[in-house]
Amino acid sequence: MTAKESLRVGIVGCGEIAQQHLRIWRKLDRVSVAAVCDADKSRAERTARTWHIPAYYGDLGQMLERESISIVDICTPPQAHCPLIVQALESNCHVVVEKPLSMTAEEARAIISRHKGSQTKIAVIHNWLSVPVMTRALSLIKKGSLGHVFST
Prior knowledge:
6-stranded parallel β-sheet, alpha/beta, 152 residues, Rossmann fold, 40% helix, globular
């Protein structure tokens, strides 16, 4: 990417999380949101209109075929993550995905297998990990100060 080029983002899933992501993408230099996609195409259309995004789709495959996308930002429910990530990777796109990466270890292995040898990056958003209250809670858990913890 040259200094004048920008990364083109395609967002999949146009619910509330996507609206938060759009606020952040808009603040970044050299980044443009090229298109949005949602299984409910009317929701994608509303999002595109609200945020002045030039294109919207009801299918990720169509978006990837028609748009030059650098990064696919996946803002869908977790059960949809794996096939969308794999589809984005197959189109040589970087992926930003809300946690969790996948619902099962098998899905995670499928993603890792598809990712191996590629030049793409996958970023999983764990938005609470650096919040002071969470780092303090994790510290207390590691010290054993909270008693028996069933899951972290």
